Amino acid sequence: MHPTYPALPYNYSNHRPTNVQPVVIDPYWSSTWPTIRSILLSFLMLISSAAIIGLEIANVAIEYNKDNDFKRLGMGTSKVGAGIWCGSISFLAAIFIVVIVCVRNKRVAATFALIAVTLAFFFTIILVGLTANSIERDQDLYDMQRRLIIAILSIALFVLTQCLIFFLMYISVFFSSATRISSAYY
């Protein structure tokens, strides 16, 4: 049986005020979304993303300031500045996670954050592949530059786990609220 919806009477006039309650779009998302975990996750993701960006800027600066014939900016996997654009996307994803806590419609904000975190997840996978390849293949790296790339790799793996944690948070709230809404009508 389909749920019935209240209809306004036929003598309804558009020119007088009525007592119609606004429709709540996400009745259970506001109460089930983990606010503290979202704030903690976004804070860690902001710091990790800023660290990736900073370390990649340092890596590119070292590569640019080389005085020998090994200066090949943009010619290898460790010399393209991948941490800058990957860190920027994960930084934006962390801002989207913060927005979830601030807005009323948590379902829509969480869905936009899910899209941003998915992009950050895929770009971070690319960053992990590029940095792992540069550690393995580039023999012309200075010791300090190799340490920077290893630090970028380890922080990128930490960002990947943060993205997975957000996926789990979203899925748990999605299924818990969907269960409550479907059982309310029957």
TrEMBL record:
<keyword id="KW-1133">Transmembrane helix</keyword>
<keyword id="KW-0472">Membrane</keyword>
<feature type="transmembrane region" description="Helical">
    <location>
        <begin position="110"/>
        <end position="128"/>
    </location>
</feature>
<keyword id="KW-0812">Transmembrane</keyword>
<feature type="transmembrane region" description="Helical">
    <location>
        <begin position="39"/>
        <end position="62"/>
    </location>
</feature>
<protein>
    <submittedName>
        <fullName>Uncharacterized protein</fullName>
    </submittedName>
</protein>
<feature type="transmembrane region" description="Helical">
    <location>
        <begin position="148"/>
        <end position="175"/>
    </location>
</feature>
<feature type="transmembrane region" description="Helical">
    <location>
        <begin position="82"/>
        <end position="103"/>
    </location>
</feature>
